[in-house]
Amino acid sequence: MSTPYEHIRRTKTKLRSRNQVTLPQEVCDEAGAKTGDEFRVTVTKRARKVPAGTIVLTPEFFNTRPWTEKEWEEKEREAEESIARGETYGPFNTAEEAIRFLKKESKSRRLRRDT
User: Fold this and answer.
1) What's the pTM value of the predicted model, to 2 decimals?
2) Nearest-angstrom CA–CA distance, 35 and 16
3) CB 46, CB 64: distance < 8 Å
4) I want to staple 87 with a disulfide (CB 3.0 to 4.6 A). Which of 4, 82, 99, 115 is the partner?
């Protein structure tokens, strides 16, 4: 069956009592999932190239593993140092202007990285 995404890893698991599914360790390792992480569960009705009833688990990492106070302080310090070095952009008059700049900057960085 053709799918709209590239498989990094394909494996089987079994639905157990109390509707529990165990994710194989290699799948968790590949996805970066850890014990206690939460997942959004989606059941498809109908989608292009995805059969109805397909179950999709999407990790909710940003909601379940916020930065610790120490990590937050480190990121703030890095941001303050970056600002002190003049590594800032703008000001922008509109959100659209900022988005155009970010898209252009992203493309420029990709080109520099790929050369």
Assistant:
1) 0.42
2) 18
3) no
4) 82
